[in-house]
Design a protein that fits this description.
This protein has a single domain (5-15, 29-169), classed as P-loop containing nucleotide triphosphate hydrolases (Rossmann fold), CATH 3.40.50.300. The chain is an alpha/beta fold. The protein starts with a strand and ends in a 5-residue tail after the last strand. It has 7 helices and 5 strands, in the order βαβααβαβαααβ. The protein has helices spanning 16-27, 34-42, 52-75, 89-101, 115-128, 139-148, 154-158, and strands at 5-9, 30-33, 80-83, 106-112, 163-166. Strands 2-3-1-4-5 form a 5-stranded parallel beta sheet, with helices on both faces. The mean pLDDT is 88.
């Protein structure tokens, strides 16, 4: 049985969106990628340079809508794949708590890739601007996210049948 919600977890450049796309096709699920929501809804209005508080307020709004849609999908037996970054454990805990409150099952799929490989992928994505490109990530932004990154421990990603994916096969 597939969980109602799958949290796709990994740091910048891990291949979360690529993995989420494949898994959504495999499961017949619906994928929600925060980068696509943010650039589609707020990209033209974004202050330059990006202001962290401005961005976080909009991410919170998007996530509330995404969770509402995930609940509707679960009621119809369709899994929701949440590609929301989940950089910090508190963020993952928030979604697990929301899911528990709504009586939804949730698992973590951890896309695990070393930082050097992720930086290489980010540079390639910046240049190629392919289907998973949402915005340019420079070294400063990459390092900022790297400093915030809290990888899930095995007990977190393995709970309820979650997975750790060697990300070298995702990109």
């Amino acid at each position: 049985m597939t969980a109602d919600m799958i949290l796709i977890v990994g740091c910048t450049g891990a291949g979360k969106t690529t993995y989420a796309r494949r898994l959504a096709d495999e499961l017949g699920g619906v994928r929600f990628s925060i980068d696509e929501w943010m650039t589609g809804l707020f990209g033209p209005d974004s202050p330059q340079p990006i202001q962290f508080q401005w961005m976080m307020e909009r991410i919170d709004r998007c996530e509330a809508q995404i969770f509402s849609l995930a609940r509707q999908l679960a009621a119809r037996g369709v899994p929701a794949l949440l590609d929301l970054g989940f950089t910090k454990k508190v963020h993952r805990d928030k979604f697990r708590a929301l899911a528990a409150e709504a009586k939804l099952s949730v698992v973590v799929h951890f896309v695990d890739v070393p930082a050097g490989e992720r930086w290489y992928r980010v540079n390639r994505r910046n240049k190629e601007r392919g289907e998973t490109f949402a915005m340019e990530v420079d070294r400063q932004m990459f390092d900022f996210m790297e400093g915030m990154w809290e990888p899930p421990l095995e007990a977190e990603w393995s709970a309820g049948g979650g997975l750790r994916i060697n990300g070298s096969s995702t990109a």
